[in-house]
Amino acid sequence: MRNYEVMFIVRPNLEDEATNAVCESMKKVLEDKGATINEVVNMGRRELAYEVRKFNNGNYFLFKLTSDKEAVKEFDRVANINEDIIRHIVVKRED
């Protein structure tokens, strides 16, 4: 098991309930594959450095988790399919 940080940006034109639902569904994807989520940080709406899919800002979320690579690969696959997520990144932490 390794430590990871997963950050993703949800498109800004969703309502708060829908944004939180996206966060919960992505959390469930990881947990269903055996990941342990240690911390969830809702960083709020922030301006993007450059335009992404015609959006200038987005709702940022950060998960700190312990997992094997299968859960992270599944997150990556689902995040690429989900139209509400405009960007995501997975970083392996060296703790």
Q: What this model shows, in words?
A:
The protein is α+β, with helices and mostly antiparallel strands and 95 residues long. It has one domain (2-93): 2-Layer Sandwich (Alpha-Beta Plaits), CATH 3.30.70. It has 2 helices and 4 strands. Strands 2-3-1-4 form a 4-stranded antiparallel sheet, covered by helices on one side. Helix 1 (16-32) packs antiparallel against helix 2. It starts with a strand and ends with a strand. The mean pLDDT is 95.
CA radius of gyration is 13 Å
Give the beta-strand count: 4
CATH first level: which class?
Alpha Beta
Helix content: 25-40%
Averaged pLDDT, please? Answer: 95
For the largest beta sheet, what order do the strands appear in spatially? Answer: 2-3-1-4
Order of helices and strands: EHEEHE
How do you describe this structure in short?
The protein has helices at residues 16-32, 69-81, and strands at 2-10, 36-52, 55-67, 85-93. With 95 residues, the protein is α+β, with helices and mostly antiparallel strands. The protein has a four-stranded antiparallel sheet, with helices on one face.
